[in-house]
Design goal:
- By secondary structure, the chain is mainly beta.
- Helix content is about 15%, strand content about 60%.
- The protein has one domain (about 1-235): Porin (Beta Barrel).
- The chain is built from three helices and 14 strands.
- The longest helix is centred in the first third of the chain and has 18 residues, at about 1-20.
C-alpha cells in the first residue's frame, strides 16, 4: 500500500510539471541501460524533460524528472572501478531521477541540434540486494579459497546517488513549434550502499567459515549509477 501511494504521488508530480512550465516542455519515452545492469524503463512509461528557460537563441538551462523502474544495477569500488559480480547486485527498485543541465542549441532549417551536460541526483526507494548474485560472488571472490556454497546475511542502507550527465538531442519540427526528438544521455555517478553483514561458507558439505565479515571491497562498494539513456519524445517550444 505504501509503495502504491509513493508511485501515485510521484506520478501526480510528473503531471504537474507537465502543466506548469516557463518556456517549454517535453514529454518523452525514455529507457535506461545501466552499466553491468538490466534494461530499465520509466513508471509510468513517461518522463518529463527539458523543462526550463532559454538564454538567447543558442543557450538554455533545463531540468528533467523521471520515475524509473530499475530492474538491476551493478556496483563499483571506492575508486570508481566496476566490480564484476557476474550479474546485477542491486534491484529491482524504483528510482526518482532528476537532472539540471546547461545546453547549447544550433537550429538548422526545421532541425534543432542540442548538446549539453550537468548534474543529476536520484533517490532510490528501498533498493534490495540480489542475494543469489552476492552468494555466488562470495563463493568465488578469492580463487585460492573458493567455496562450494555460501549463505550470506547482508543489508544495505544507501538510498541517494548523484553524478554527471551529458548527451545530445536532435529535434525535427513537423508543425510550427511541435517537434519529434531523438536523443541519448550518459549518466556517470553512484551512491554509497553502506553494505554490512556476514556470510557462512561450505565446502564438500562441511561449514568452513562461520559469520565471516564481508570483504573490504564490498563494505566500501558503491551503487554504479552509470549507463546510457535513450530518449524518444515529442516537444513543444513555447
Amino acid at each position: 500500500m505504501r509503495q502504491f501511494a509513493r508511485i501515485l504521488a510521484l506520478s501526480l508530480l510528473l503531471l504537474l510539471l507537465t502543466v506548469f512550465t516557463a518556456q517549454g516542455l517535453g514529454v518523452s519515452f525514455s529507457y535506461f541501460l545501466p552499466r553491468n545492469g538490466i534494461f530499465s524503463h520509466p513508471v509510468p512509461p513517461l518522463s518529463v524533460r527539458d523543462v526550463g528557460i532559454d538564454i538567447g537563441n543558442y543557450l538554455g538551462i533545463a531540468g528533467s524528472l523521471s520515475l524509473y523502474s530499475i530492474r538491476g544495477m551493478g556496483i563499483k569500488d571506492s575508486g570508481g572501478e566496476p566490480i564484476d559480480t557476474g550479474g546485477s547486485l542491486v534491484g529491482p527498485f524504483l528510482s526518482v531521477l532528476g537532472s539540471i543541465t546547461g545546453k547549447i542549441r544550433v537550429p538548422v532549417n526545421n532541425w534543432e541540434i542540442e548538446a549539453g551536460g550537468g548534474i543529476f541526483g536520484c533517490y532510490n526507494i528501498d533498493p534490495p540486494l540480489v542475494t543469489g548474485t552476492l552468494d555466488r560472488y562470495l563463493a568465488a571472490a578469492t580463487p585460492a579459497d573458493s567455496y562450494e556454497a555460501v549463505s550470506s546475511s547482508v543489508s544495505s542502507a544507501g538510498r541517494w546517488a548523484w553524478g554527471w550527465v551529458f548527451g545530445g538531442k536532435a529535434t525535427y519540427f513537423v508543425m510550427g513549434q511541435l517537434g519529434i526528438a531523438v536523443g541519448a544521455n550518459y549518466y556517470l555517478g553512484g551512491g554509497d550502499l553502506n553494505m554490512s553483514g556476514s556470510y557462512d561458507a561450505y565446502d564438500a558439505g562441511i561449514q568452513v567459515l562461520d559469520n565471516e565479515p564481508l570483504p573490504i571491497n564490498l563494505q566500501n562498494a558503491r551503487l554504479d549509477y552509470s549507463g546510457l539513456e535513450i530518449v524518444l519524445g515529442v516537444e513543444i517550444a513555447l
